[in-house]
Amino acid sequence: KQAEKAVHQKKEQSKTKCRKARRRHVNLVVEFNRRQGKNIWLETHIWHAKRFHMVKKWGYCLGDSPTQKCYRACYRAMTNHCLLQDLSYYCCLELTGKENELLKQLARICSTDTGLTFEEVCCLSGRFEGSLNLYRADRYPEDMLGPVTFIWKPRDGSENRQLWIWMHPALKQDILRELKAIFQCSEPEEAYIPEPVTTSVQEEKQMDVVLSLGKKRKKEDKEGERAVPAKKIIGDGTRDPFQSYAWISQTTGIVISDKTMEILRYRLIGPLSHSVLTETLKAASLQTV
């Protein structure tokens, strides 16, 4: 009787995995990808989530205000050392085509009365980044779209050039619509639709090993079947990941590509910013063929 009583009193095995199992790399990747279904995370999301109050804006999950009293530390870094900001949520549009055709059409959405334009010599060479205000085509000084920054890729000897235009995510759709209109770009006939990226083969094998060890409970969906691991979403909060992100003009050959979240962007503030860059980035040796 005592033995039977002890069997009934034995606690059932916990259905939730232990913290060590939950913190395994494979499990973290699957969980993080699942939680990015609606709001995209930046590369530095985990670091910010532990130290900032997070807000959901423009399709992203961004750090708004710090949870600790670090205002003095940030101010001290800006004035005496170096402070880094993650601006990867800014949207980037890439224009590729003949330089003359690009400058001809871009002149319609900006004006020399406001300052620099895309034709500025120092910016056209690719050495400096420029900033200006964009307007709807031939509508200056009315119908302002918003401020943007741009940088040209240095010349490589060919007549084709590449231009990157950076803008706030709230302005992206209006500016993209205007660029497609002035360059007469439409979606290519065979639109490339990226497939969601899953975990690598090695990670999948590790996941099978983790599930097979012990009596681990397998996640089940609403139908009771084994749940499919969450897939990493390609894209950003301002576009559908399963829609085309490149448009081409059949008349001029200009190509507009959406490079948002494919090119990371950071801002360094402070007197030691240049020293940080020189210590972090090592110049490659120039080899001539």
Automatic annotation (TrEMBL):
One of its GO terms (biological process) is tRNA 5'-leader removal. It comes from the Eukaryota. InterPro entries: Pop1, Pop1_N. One of its GO terms (cellular component) is ribonuclease MRP complex. Residues 4-97 form the Pop1 N-terminal domain. It holds the Pfam family POP1_N. This is POP1 protein. The gene is Pop1.
